[in-house]
Amino acid sequence: MGRPTWGGIVQHHRTVPRTAYLASTPSGKDRVRLFCFHHAGGGASAFAGFERALADRIDVVRVQLPGREGRIGQRLPPRMADIVTELDAHLDPYLTGDYAFYGHSMGALVAHDLAARRQARGANLPSRLIAAACRAPHLPPAFAALHDGTDEVLIRTMTDIGGLSPALLGRPEWVRAAVSLTRGDLRLCAGRDTTPGEPLRCAIDVFHGEDDPLVSAGQARGWARRTAGAFGWHTFEGGHFFQLGPAADVVARAIARLLVKAALPGVR
């Protein structure tokens, strides 16, 4: 895709460009920044809850891939490596100082591959990668094989795991759009290179839903192989989208403890 139209914002006393890959931008306050990468078929709005819950301690920066929400009509690059290359270029001015990545499902793979690319070229790395609801990156990605399946199977699976509200099934045009978007994202995951590279020189924490039908605990624990640093394991009540359910506040508090090494006000 073409280069974006650059605007200017001030962050940490210097001007950095705006990019369509960010649905929210760093505040410029001197605190850790958390870049959030959304799931297949989703968008940056999935992290609005994080932004509200963590606003007083952490700069939540929501990453937006093409083809959804404010970027409808923009072409999704054909390969995961292409997306990662673009993200590295577009986000590089923001990836300074103390920052971390949070990726949910497909987003965890995007975040991992971006960190790996930055490590390979000697760029500043995140202090921590939080991989949620995702099989280890050297394993076949969950759900991705359905990218060439029928609409009926894809719709049923999306509904079963909570990725498509049953209330939308009566809106065929919305369902078609959701299926098309999800299919494109899953195609990216299915074609991704799963060859293990050098372990990341940053900590990795895995967030896992106890009832996730797509990712087993063993598959998620495989992330331990991808770090040369500390590894953390955290389980939460819920399924594949546990961060949107009853455990939402617990997830936000866990992130705060990891990133600021101190609980949010009122949190023990």
UniProtKB/TrEMBL annotation:
Q: Name one GO biological process term.
A: lipid biosynthetic process
Instruction: Extract the GO molecular function terms from the UniProt entry.
Output: hydrolase activity
Domain Thioesterase, which positions? 33-256
Q: What keywords would UniProt list here?
A: Hydrolase
Q: Name one Pfam family in it.
A: Thioesterase
For whether the record's keyword set contains Ribonucleoprotein, the answer is no
Task: List the PANTHER family hit by this protein, alphabetically.
Answer: S-ACYL FATTY ACID SYNTHASE THIOESTERASE, MEDIUM CHAIN (PTHR11487:SF0), THIOESTERASE (PTHR11487)
> Of which family is this protein a member?
Belongs to the thioesterase family.
Name the UniProt record assigns to this protein: Alpha/beta fold hydrolase
